[in-house]
């Protein structure tokens, strides 16, 4: 007698998570409830955070390049890195052939997104959380490739009318954790930031920083002889310092800001300025202004402002905040689920 037997296959789709160093890739890490249920891999820059990531996940490291390098006087270095990224990204995508690529930008992973589209992947572009007022260059270039476009500020819908809006910023209740008399100054994972390091060094020399001090300078950054400095740190060591530090002085990247706010640190931000050749544009000023308006951080652009910010930081109550991606994860689960719904295969049993 003939019979039917069927088995539902577990929904799984290969996900490429593409984000450059710092806050871009950290936001992808926040989406773990989504990607951990599937076959996934990361594409990111070869930074300390990228190296840490590669120790725990299948990770491909591509060269750092950004369009703004040309404005900072390094067009040939930018083109050389872009050419390497183009070739490496093609090799990665033809090897992995993801079903979907989820990218938070920026330039370093543009070719990964492009090649993923060409091999048939669904493309999800998440415009950087760093963009509150206007679109990024990566967003403008990559949005035509996107099957799904996501922004994290309602103001950006004017630039991206078809985008979905998910604002992840959430205040945290509860008492801040106990802290040590420790100041951690960090320039982030990618670029040196000599103005920040030298400002901290000046205040340290004049005795305005009595706390224990640790300074992370970036590769090739200023390293004053009288400061306890380190070029880079593994991400787990950064997290340990943030758990202990009462005050954090950092650049204006969202990854650095949110990571410190989660740990209940008093955060003083010094945004990188394009006019000083410290970044490719002034989006960090936009970020820090938005965070300061919410009462989350203090902002300093000069030594005098930094000195005053230290005084305020020691007297104000810490504010704890984080990015909560729950609504975004729910949306993306629907997108991924639609790509590979459980299928039932029917098999006719042989007659006896």
Describe the fold and architecture.
The protein has helices at 23-29, 32-35, 48-54, 75-96, 110-118, 137-142, 194-205, 235-244, 254-262, 283-293, 303-315, 326-339; strands spanning 4-5, 15-19, 40-45, 59-62, 100-105, 122-126, 148-151, 164-165, 169-171, 180-186, 212-216, 229-230, 245-250, 266-269, 298-299, 321-323, 347-348. The chain is an alpha/beta fold. The protein has two domains: 15-168 and 324-342, Glycogen Phosphorylase B (Rossmann fold, 3-Layer(aba) Sandwich), CATH 3.40.50.2000; 180-322, Rossmann fold, CATH 3.40.50.2000. A seven-stranded parallel beta sheet has the order 4-3-2-5-6-7-8, sandwiched between helices. A six-stranded parallel beta sheet has the order 12-11-10-13-14-15, with helices on both faces. Strands 1-17 form a two-stranded antiparallel ribbon. Helix 3 links the parallel strand 3 and strand 4. Helix 4 (75-96) runs parallel beside helix 5. The longest helix has 22 residues, at 75-96. The protein starts with a strand and ends with a strand. The model is unreliable at 1-10 and 344-352 (pLDDT under 50).
Low-confidence stretches: 1-10, 344-352
Characterize the biggest β-sheet: 7 strands, parallel
Strand order of the largest sheet: 4-3-2-5-6-7-8
Helical content (DSSP H or I, runs of 4+): 25-40%
Per DSSP, the total helix count is 12
Give the CATH superfamily of the largest domain: Glycogen Phosphorylase B
Give the strand content. Answer: 15-25%
> Termini distance?
7 Å
Q: What string gives the helices and strands in order?
A: EEHHEHEHEHEHEEEEHEEHEHEHEHEHE
CATH-scheme architecture of the largest domain: 3-Layer(aba) Sandwich
| The CATH topology of the largest domain | Rossmann fold
CATH C-level class of the largest domain is: Alpha Beta
Question: Structural class, from secondary structure content?
Answer: alpha/beta
Number of strands: 17
Count the domains: 2
Q: Give me the Rg, rounded.
A: 22 Å
Shape verdict = globular
């Amino acid at each position: 007698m003939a019979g039917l037997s069927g088995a539902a296959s577990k929904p799984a789709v290969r996900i490429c998570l593409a984000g450059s160093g710092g806050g871009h890739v950290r936001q992808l890490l926040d989406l773990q409830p989504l990607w951990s249920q599937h076959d996934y891999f990361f594409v990111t820059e070869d930074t300390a955070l990228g190296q840490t990531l590669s120790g725990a996940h299948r990770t491909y490291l591509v060269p750092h390049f950004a369009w703004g390098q040309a404005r900072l006087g390094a067009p040939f270095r930018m083109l050389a890195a872009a050419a390497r990224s183009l070739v490496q990204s093609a090799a990665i995508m033809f090897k992995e052939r993801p079903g979907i690529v989820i990218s938070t930008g920026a330039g370093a992973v543009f070719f990964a997104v492009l090649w993923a589209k060409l091999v048939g992947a669904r493309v999800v572009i998440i415009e950087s959380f760093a963009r509150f007022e206007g679109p990024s260059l990566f967003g403008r270039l990559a949005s035509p490739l996107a099957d799904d476009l996501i922004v994290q500020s309602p103001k950006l819908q004017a630039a991206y009318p078809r985008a979905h809006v998910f604002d992840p910023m959430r205040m945290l209740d509860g008492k801040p954790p106990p802290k040590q008399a420790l100041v951690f100054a960090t320039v982030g994972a990618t670029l040196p930031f000599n103005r920040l390091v030298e400002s901290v060094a000046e205040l340290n020399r004049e005795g305005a920083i009595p706390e224990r001090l640790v300074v992370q300078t970036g590769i090739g950054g200023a390293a004053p002889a009288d400061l306890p400095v380190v070029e880079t740190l593994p991400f787990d060591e950064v997290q340990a310092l943030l758990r202990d530090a009462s005050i954090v002085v950092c650049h204006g990247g969202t990854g650095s800001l949110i990571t410190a706010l989660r740990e209940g640190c008093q955060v003083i931000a010094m945004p990188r300025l394009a006019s000083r050749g410290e970044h490719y544009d002034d989006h960090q000023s936009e970020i820090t202004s938005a965070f300061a308006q919410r009462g989350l951080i203090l902002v300093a652009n000069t030594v005098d402002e930094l000195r005053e910010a230290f005084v305020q930081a020691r007297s104000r109550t810490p504010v704890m905040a984080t990015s909560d991606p729950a609504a975004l994860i729910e949306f993306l689960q629907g997108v991924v689920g639609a790509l590979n719904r459980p299928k039932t295969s029917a098999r006719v049993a042989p007659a006896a």
